Amino acid sequence: MPCCSGQNQKKPNQQQLVPCWSGQNVNRKTNQTCSNTEKPGIKETLLHNVNANVANIWPAKLKALLLQRSRYNRGRFFNSHIYNFSSMNQYETVFILTPVLSDEQMKETVAKFKKVLTDKGAEILNEEAWGLKKLAYSIQKKSSGFYAMLEYNAEPAVIDTLETAFRRDEKVIRFITVKHDKYSAAYAEKRRAKWAEKKQEA
Hints:
Blueprint (H helix, E strand, L loop, with lengths): L16 E3 L5 E3 L14 H12 L5 H15 L6 H4 L5 E9 L5 H17 L3 E17 L2 E13 L1 H13 L3 E8 L2 H20 L1
Antiparallel strand pairs: 1-2, 3-5, 3-6, 4-5
């Protein structure tokens, strides 16, 4: 019925329609689609499905829905502890310690960096102490250093934490971290087996 502004008011008994995943309109009360062919907006479709129909969506569609939903909420929709989206990678870090350390000090330093990793949720796969070796060139007026290697699974953010700890420790003169792909990971597994055999023989 017309109002004073010249516009038509919404009828009290008019049923409200909302968009669904298929692009059709759904009645909130009866859950029936109507014949209106007007395509709903993407944002409205996503909001409705996240709040009401997530349980009825196949996993592939749910993943796509979450990715699109994050565009509107700037990533606030993602909670790794809820959806368990793991980003663990396999890394190998080799670092060189100053040669003036005793064997006990070297072991304590390596243990400290292992703790940095484990405190951030990393899984230590292998640890190797290569001993005192001559450097290819002089570093900080030193011609040799203690080499150590750690192999572990961790999230990418853990690498920044570990390398910050390296830079703050005066006993570390060089370090490098490499991310394994499937081929280097397979090679590293074979090397771990050989290293374990050497330890048993010793």
